[in-house]
Amino acid sequence: LLSGHVAAPSVETQPSNTTKNETDVAQFSCIFANTRPEPDDVSWIFINNSGHTMTRQEEMRGVGVRRSVVKISSVKRADAGAYRCVIKNEFAIVHSQPGYLMVPYCDGLVTQQVECALGRTF
Fold it and tell me: Are 16 and 28 in contact (CB under 8 A)?
């Protein structure tokens, strides 16, 4: 039996947008309210730039406080997209707002190499 206030989980701090270069480390955090009952599960959903949705729980689990941090140890272009945490307890399943990972890159055209070296992307 639970005593006191019981409620669906809620997100207190949403994941933030970030820009990282390839091979950098990227991290998103999702801080959830101290609810009763405690969440049964906290996982992450990745929505890539083509619109495909994947749960990448095994690759991203176990990094942060209260299972609310996801870390990508070596960013690739394919990691660009939206990251949302999903918090579940017996009352509800709650999704955070997305935090977007942007990964700038250049397409390799000779005419754009100087612009690319200056950090501009195409």
Answer: yes
